[in-house]
Amino acid sequence: MKKKKTSPRVWKGAPTISDVALAAGVSTMTVSRVINGAGNVKAKTLAAVDAAIAKLNYSPNPAARSLAGASPVRIGLLYSNPSAAYLSEFLVGVLEQASLSHVQLIVEKCVAGSDELRVARTLIADGADGILLPPPLCDSRPLLELMTESSMPCVVVASGRPARDVSAVSIDDYAAAQAMTRHLLELGHARIGFITGNPDQTASSRRQEGYQAALIERGIRVDPALIAQGLFTYRSGLDAAELLLRQPNPPTAIFASNDDMAAATVAVAHSQGLAVPSDMTVCGFDDTAMATTIWPELTTVRQPIGDMSRAALDMLVRKVKAKRSRSPLPAGHELLDFVLVRRQSDAPPRQRPPVVQDKHV
Q: What separation in angstroms does the CA of 326 have from each of 32, 34, 277, 302, 319?
């Protein structure tokens, strides 16, 4: 019995994704990744798939493409934030925007300076389409280099000095700190203490520069003794406030670089028998829930944390979709407005009577 001769394959109808994979010598999954603009495809493989698509005149099935386009974008949120109040507002904003944008949000915690690269690599390997980096990770050079090397769309939030090639959402920290310091000067304070933030975050230096600029424009010398190092944590605020208030000539007002440290300053003032604001003014930055859960409520700079996280997620989703369509967007920087919010923790400096020495007859 003679075996039937097998004839060469005859194309019946439009070529399929399997035909493209066969012609390119790759898997159908790889072809799908190329079509949808996913990252981590070698240039040689990308060229082979493109050549096969052109040769076969392949056009993805419109219904399948529609379904693929409707599949949610997977966004990784990597966080390591010492301020629970800041993180809470950030998460509320990003979760609301994720729901509106049909985004799958993958939230991962890491320890800044320790395992952020490992966790970020895991997010990338697990198929994240883009990654959000809130502070302090927004200023991590190793993380940003990893995003570039892996062609991973990324948006940083609240960086004081975002690089030109990095997409970012922030406020003008310099102008905000300058505005708060001007406010204290207009109240009549001349000795204004300042508690800095974490030196690893660029927003910290920008806020200090704004504070110093306001003093200089008023003709007041910047006194290093009135500047204390903080880390954006409540504990560091306690230490910094104690350092400022133990001076022979302590400040009449203290401006802390975030609300956590400002709240700590109020606690130290109370422990030393000082009333806020009649004996000493205290102001913060961020306007987190902390600002209104202590007494007196804090005068502070409102950084729209929730709006920033929403804007960042929206920007990142647009970047991911543009990458899928092979028309990547250039890096953009969105600057949101800040607001100086006056509450009960500021007042003009108290006029204390001069100290009279006892006279001995």
A: 14, 10, 57, 38, 10
Helix axes 202-217, 173-187, angle to 10 degrees: 40
Cα distance between residue 138 and residue 201, in whole Å: 8
Neighbours of 43 (CB within 10 A): 7
Tell me the residue ranges of DSSP E strands in the chain: 73-79, 103-109, 130-133, 154-157, 167-170, 192-195, 227-228, 253-256, 281-286, 299-302, 333-335, 339-341
Can you give the pLDDT of all 361 residues of the chain as single tens digits? Answer: 444 444 444 444 567 777 888 888 988 767 766 765 555 677 788 788 888 887 887 766 544 444 444 567 999 999 997 788 899 999 999 999 998 888 999 999 998 888 999 999 999 998 899 999 999 999 999 999 999 999 999 999 999 999 999 999 999 999 999 999 999 999 999 999 999 999 999 999 999 999 999 999 999 999 999 999 999 999 999 999 999 999 999 999 999 999 999 999 999 999 999 999 999 999 999 999 999 999 999 999 999 999 999 999 999 999 999 998 888 899 999 999 999 999 999 999 986 544 444 444 3
Cβ contacts of residue 361 below 8 Å, gap of 6+? none
List the structure tokens of 323. Answer: 């990458």
Going from the N-terminus, what domains does the chain have, and what CATH number goes with each? 17-68 (1.10.260.40), 72-171+305-337 (3.40.50.2300), 173-302 (3.40.50.2300)
